Amino acid sequence: MSVRVQEQAFDTGAELNAFAERAKGAGAVVSFTGIVRDVAGGLQHMMIEHYPGMTESAIEGIVAEAQTRWTLADALVIHRFGQLAPGAPIMMVATASAHRADAFAAADFLMDYLKSRAPFWKKEVTADGADWVAAQDADEDALRRW
Q1: Deepest of 3, 21, 82, 121, by most Cβ within 10 A of its Cβ?
Q2: What is the pLDDT of residues 69-81, one digit of tens each?
Q3: Looking only at Cα atoms, what is the longest distance across the chain?
Q4: Around 133, how many Cα atoms within 13 Å sit in the side-chain half-sphere?
Q5: Those residues with Cβ within 8 angstroms of residue 89's Cβ, 6 or more apart along the chain or in another chain
Q6: Using CB atoms within 10 A of its CB, is residue 79 exposed (0-12), middle (13-18) or buried (19+)?
Q7: Burial class (CB within 10 angstroms; exposed 0-12, middle 13-18, buried 19+) of 111
């Protein structure tokens, strides 16, 4: 299991290759990479804030929960903070297991948690000003299924 909260960019392909190499013997590797998307009005950048230590601990706890719910060979979560431009990778989840069902379910669970419960605060900055990103009902609905 690996959780990284970092300001610097990461190479999705290199991260996935290294993860798959560590997960030798697994029959399935699933990954998801979230990208900063543009918003109406033209996103200049997104600012992501967090509390160091607390954020990593919270994510490590949910990865541990995923490992109790599904049979996983390994799991990886990378989440960035700081100023991110549209199109930049913001986060990555990868899971490995003997079978695809566990890898897909665990990755989906982790993504739902990161979207709605991980302690990050996001602000979208456009030419018109800045707005904090509010929780979405759809994200809460997705989390409730778990």
Answers
A1: 3
A2: 999 999 999 999 9
A3: 51
A4: 22
A5: 9, 10, 12, 33, 34, 35, 36, 80
A6: buried
A7: middle
Alpha-carbon distance of 118 to 46, in angstroms, equals 17
Q: CA-CA distance, 46 to 120, in Å (whole number)?
A: 12
Q: Domains of the chain: which residue ranges? A: 2-144
Sign of the CA dihedral with 125 first, then 135, 63, and 58 last: positive
Topology (CATH level 3) of domain 2-144: Aldehyde Oxidoreductase; domain 3 (3.90.1170)
What secondary structure does DSSP assign to the chain, as a single string?
A: -EEEEESS---HHHHHHHHHHHTTT-SEEEEEEEEPPP-TT-EEEEEEEE-TTHHHHHHHHHHHHHHHHS--SEEEEEEE-EEE-TT-EEEEEEEEESSHHHHHHHHHHHHHHHHHTSSEEEEEEETTEEEEPPP-HHHHHHHHT-
Contact 66, 115 (CB under 8 A): no
Q: Looking at this protein, which amino acid is placed at residue 79? A: H
Q: What pLDDT, in 10s, does the model give residues 84-122?
A: 999 999 999 999 999 999 999 999 999 999 988 899 999
